[in-house]
Write a structure and sequence with these properties.
Elements lengths: L1 E5 L13 H8 L4 E5 L13 E2 L9 E2 L1 H9 L7 E12 L2 H10 L2 E6 L15 E4 L9 H12 L10 H4 L18 E2 L2 E2 L2 H4 L3 H19 L1 H12 L4
Parallel strand pairs: 1-2, 1-6, 5-6, 5-7
Antiparallel strand pairs: 3-4, 8-9
Helix pairs in contact: 3-4, 7-8
Amino acid sequence: MRFDLITLFPEFFQSPLQSGLIGKAIAKGLAEVHCTNPRDFTSDRHHKVDDEPYGGGAGMVLKPEPLFAALESLPTLPARQVIYLSPQGEPMTQALFQELADSVDQLVMVCGHYEGIDERVMTLIDREISLGDFVLTCGEIPALALLNGVLRLRPGTIGKEESHRCDSFSDGLLDYPHYTRPAEFRGLRVPEVLLSGNHGAIAAWRRQQQMDRTRDRRPDLYQTWQTQQSEPDC
């Protein structure tokens, strides 16, 4: 899978893309990541990429010429989506990550800055995606989150593919609690059912923990999950 990052700060991605499972996936050739800087497509000696907004107002706006040129310089794979990271976009979800991991060969991400981008650039954008209902100083942070969330779902990134099925949100519920050795630490014991060897009882305990956690921590998700459970299959 190919990831293209349209960014004023390519150095932002250097360390994260060399670390952990994502770094290993890229090193193995499971994905390739390319950074394109709009400043490289400017013609003035100051490499100016922003200007004051028409109509007045605070802040600066990213100019259309460098962004158009940067986007048009990229190769185009058959299954491609161009994403603008914006607080006005649809929120990131596990379902969204899975959709992109399954259906896209090339993900182009435009990282916004300042007050945003010239609206005419939106003619090149397929969809807007948001990290959440808040504003950050740059689009590189949500772009990295989107890249991470999608790439970890691609085959080969994580050793055990079954891990995906146990992720929080994968089936509408939060994940169950996890324990490892030692069986007792500072008076805190691992639940006996996990030491029993009874796989049926363990599965039932974990499912109940998922439901309890989701009900207590995310009642909105729990209500949605309950509604889905009560709906007929056909």
